[in-house]
Amino acid sequence: MNELTDKTILILGLGMIGGSLARALKAFDQKLVIYATDPNEAAIQLALKEKSIDRAGTLESLVPESDIIILAVPPLSIEKILSAIVKHVKPDAIVTDVASVKGHLLEPLKKFDEEFVKRFVPGHPIAGSEKSGYAASTAELFKDRNVILTPLKQNSLRAVNTIHALWRSTGASILGMAVEKHDEVLAATSHLPHLLAYAIVDVLAAQKQSEDIFRYAAGGFADFSRLASSDETMWSDIFIANSKATEQVLDSYIATINRLKDAISRKRQNELIDVFGRAKESRHRFISKYFDAPKIDDMTTTETSFVMDVGASNTAIGVSGDLRVPGDKSISHRSIIFGALATGVTRVKGFLEGEDALNTVAAFREMGVTIVGPDDGELRIYGVGLHGLKAPRKSLYMGNSGTAMRLLAGLLAAQDFDSELTGDESLSERPMERVIDPLNKMGARIHSNEQGTPPLKITGTKLTGISYHMPMASAQVKSCLLLAGLNAHGVTEVIEPEVCRDHTERMLEGFGYPLEKDQNRSACRLTGGGELAATEIEVPGDISSAAFFIVAATITPHSNLLLEHVGINPTRIGVISILEEMGADISLANERMIGGEPVADIRVKYSKLQGITIPIDQIPLAIDEFPVIFVAAACAVGDTFLHGAGELRVKESDRIDAMAVGLTILGVENEVFDDGIRVRGGGIGGGAIESRGDHRVAMSFAVAALRATETVVINDCGNVATSFPGFVDLAQQAGLRIKAVAK
Ligand code: S3P
Q1: Which residues pair with 671 in a beta bridge?
Q2: Is 624 annotated in the active site?
Q3: CATH number for the domain including 675?
Q4: Quick one: 534 and 577 in the same domain?
Q5: Is the separation of the CB atoms in 596 and 507 below 8 Å?
Q6: Mutate to test the pocket of ligand 1, among 472, 501, 502, 508 (most ligand atoms within 8 A of CB)
Q7: Among 187, 377, 446, 482, which residue has the fewest nearby CB atoms (within 10 Å)?
Q8: What pTM was estimated for this model as a whole?
Q9: pLDDT digits 0-9 by tens, 547-597
Q10: Are residues 652 and 616 both part of a single domain?
């Protein structure tokens, strides 16, 4: 049984795409009934003979009998065909198309009945080739290729999930995009290259020595001009339908061509080298990231170093301005997880478009969830319900994110399919027994490396709720067990030794899932088998990212900084409490609740700090901020002591060791303990620091450089993009003299 079982599928247009779809659907399930129409009688006869379709006929005869109708016709024919079929479609039939342009349909769709528009889900397989016609079709065309769905705001959840299932059955990966974004992206990546290929072949063919040109053309020309063999009617259609977006990208292309022409005529070789070098580097970066088979080493971002000037801010105004840091990482991960498991469409704003959270998006797409975006922090998640996830066809890559791996381990342990979770070099060394042990107590079957590290091989099975006293205050372990509990039999209870972040509990409430809390015992519990209802989520700015700027302004004379719209959940503001105890000048304004999370604007001014002993109950509330708190300690008068923070040794790096070694290089006296550190305040020198690929270590030393007496270079900073894309730009905006240098 699958979503397509017993469905009759009609393909209008049996060209390469329509024909390949028919073949792929038959290869997926021989019993599917497939109808087709096409003006080309030979194509129809061949398809009938090959049994890639079961029946052919007219629109009028086939449409009323079909459950899913696919318009595999050129973009400018879609409106006409929709008008022709609308009166014949069954009331619950679902309709889609395959065109490379989408925006031109928005206006015409307004004249269609709303009930019909709900069931028309535009789609676009990125799987064409220069070949055309049924003869060029293959059952494998869509395998491992992307299909972009551009669901309309009016679309029903059922319609979107059905079209997702249709394309998934062909072996494709399904992405989601807003219509406008789709047309812009395709104009740049597909339509423009086609136009250039047609143009260059046409120009060369018109030259007097065209015969010679083509005779002696090298392989590069054949590669480059391949697109000019594409179907001319289809492509003229595409340019007319997508004229606005194509014109825009064409304008910037023409400007670049003119610049290059000018550089050539003035013999400015450096300008050419500049453009070519940049293009070569970009191609290398993007091609290896998106086109080559992913290997663990390739998945880490290009290595980048930060270089900071002496006393790295403008000394007259310090660190100043109004800033907005990107969305909260913990909440962003959870918005995808819960949105995917809910029934209905969840809308998210302020989503962190960092690599970690994007890997979570990719994982849920792989498990059959349609996710539109992120686009400027906005997402639409078409939930599949608590039992609707599909078996992933490959291992799920969690990048650098311990949160994603541990939370997903809980969720996946209780599915009726098997899965594998992998991560980058750093994540591959992080301890997973903390989730494997309690999940095993619930009946899970999870296999890790001997050292208890990833990859995790999970055999989905039925779980039973337990009551679990966490040995460490870990929001990741707590959330993992609550997620497992959603699909477990009976009650799952988690008791925390110390309060730790409670975004999962707040989100469960937001999605309408009953959760009991027992403040006295620091316990929460839920009963499996309920339902999550889709909701709207506004992700606040990440206080963990804001922390770098809070410390930067605190330690730099003349600073006066406003950080807008930052999450101030009481389980996350340890950094504020600790810095205030050290003497920092931090004030909160405009406090408000947004989507179940408290938010405020934070003003920070320079102030002199005093060393303190960090209160033990603040440790889980500031767990990610210690690297930058150590930097504040280095600028304080006297010693700052931290004990009871052994957890820092198993974060993205051993943060006690990484920070101690870096601080020593900068001349900051410190003493390391198993479970903490003593940092002596005083001067900060300069030097080259290894961030060990740890985003927060890298950004903390960038902050330290504000008080350095010599240049600071921080190596291995590529992973800053996991949590804080745009860090360097924002830091420059705040007055930091920081430069990112690609290695
Ligand atoms: C997180 C919890 C914390 C934190 C991590 C994010 C979460 O880890 O360090 O960056 O989103 O639940 P622990 O719960 O393991 O302390």
Answers
A1: 678
A2: yes
A3: 3.65.10.10
A4: no
A5: yes
A6: 501
A7: 377
A8: 0.94
A9: 999 999 999 999 999 999 999 999 999 999 999 999 999 999 999 999 899
A10: yes
